[in-house]
Amino acid sequence: MSGDRRVRRTRRLVQEALVALILEKGYDAVTVTDVIERADVGRSTFYSHFTDKQDVLLSNLDEHGFLRPAPEAGPCGLFAFSLPMFAHAREQERLVRALLGRRGGGPLLAHGERLLAEIVGRELLAAGARPSAALDLLVVCVTGAYMGLLRAWVDGETAASPAELDAAFRAAVEPGVRAFLSGDVAYSHGRDE
Amino acid sequence: MSGDRRVRRTRRLVQEALVALILEKGYDAVTVTDVIERADVGRSTFYSHFTDKQDVLLSNLDEHGFLRPAPEAGPCGLFAFSLPMFAHAREQERLVRALLGRRGGGPLLAHGERLLAEIVGRELLAAGARPSAALDLLVVCVTGAYMGLLRAWVDGETAASPAELDAAFRAAVEPGVRAFLSGDVAYSHGRDE
DNA sequence: TGTCCTCCAGAACACTCTGTTCGTTATCGA
DNA sequence: TCGATAACGAACAGAGTGTTCTGGAGGACA
């Protein structure tokens, strides 16, 4: 472990307090004063570790291994990220709800969406799509559909399991994606070979 | 026109000031004090018309005819709302960017998404789908894809025209939706007839 | 064990923003 | 023209932010 035990303790207390408070009151309603009271930590202490609320969230996320470009599990079919990601979300349910939920203010949602868009884009290119404006729009659609499901689950609008969410995602977008790919691949074959 | 000329003037000034400021600084960064300065309106005047920032936005939206369940243009195919809605967004570009953009804080986005989900749900039911958990998830996917495109356009990530956005939307989701519907319809035929 | 150094508590501070109140002035509709 | 109503503007209490400082407690390391 790195550094002073007191430092770890303080950071952990603050992070846990913030997550708990977000789940109770929603991100916007939580104040720094709330957090330091709940964490039982001095005001100056808070500001010596974090710059503000958002910083606490980001550090928390970072230390839990989110925000990293995903391990690139290997080419086992289209949208390999889907099921593991839903599953991971359910494991870290408490944190994920606080971060992405309707009460979470969703400043992180945009970041997650960009990250996911990169993954989807890479997958489609690997599957034979050529870079184009149409591909970019398809990526947006696919990403939007996925994030929609994730958000719906986080907000408790559905009780579906990770497997069911994954199935719904694939059922909704795979036909369109395959049609797009087959057109694209056929076309690029016609040109390149 | 309804009411006092002074009232109309004040409301208009405030609404315009807020939109302008959001586009400059982003929703969160705009304070009520900013708005009343820009609008050149007394503080007490502001609070006699609106309860807060959000209220200004909602009133603005309401008076422009958003937030209404859409005129239900008639059954001319699946996702009839798509193209007109993209087109309408481009016409009201300034307002829509302020309301839905990354800088817009997106408190309205959730509302818009729910509204759209209702429309999509009704369309799919009208097309023969039976109410089910799977249908709900499909609606979430379709809605997510549409909102993703809208947000991408609003945030300037794409320069696509309404027609291109509409085409991308349909290409991405229609195959999956049709597959879902044909399965559903076939099944309900098997049971009901 | 002891020493040194880092971290923490707590209070006080200036600052910004919010939402309300009230007496005065101006502007509207009829 | 005149009564009603809206706007002004200043002042206010309250809440939150982010900084600074001092004294004291706790850990790391030999």
Secondary structure elements and pairings:
The structure is a homodimer of 193-residue chains.
Chain A: H1 5-25, H2 32-39, H3 43-49, H4 53-63, H5 82-91, H6 93-100, H7 107-126, H8 133-154, H9 162-192
Helix pairs in contact in A: 1-2, 1-4, 1-6, 5-9, 7-8, 8-9
Chain A binds a DNA duplex (30 and 30 nucleotides) through residues 4-7, 10, 31-33, 41-45, 47-48, 51-52.
Largest sheet of chain A: none
- Stretches of chain A where pLDDT is under 50 for at least 5 consecutive residues are 188-193
Determine the fraction of residues in helical runs of chain A and give it as a percent range.
Answer: over 70%
Instruction: Tell me the number of strands of chain A.
Output: 0
**Structural domains of chain A: how many:** 2
Choose one word for the global shape of chain A: elongated
Write the element-wise H/E pattern of chain A from the N-terminal end onward: HHHHHHHHH
Radius of gyration of chain A, in angstroms, nearest whole number? 20 Å
As a percent range, the share of strand residues of chain A is under 5%
Please work out how many helical segments of chain A DSSP would assign. Answer: 9
Assembly state: homodimer
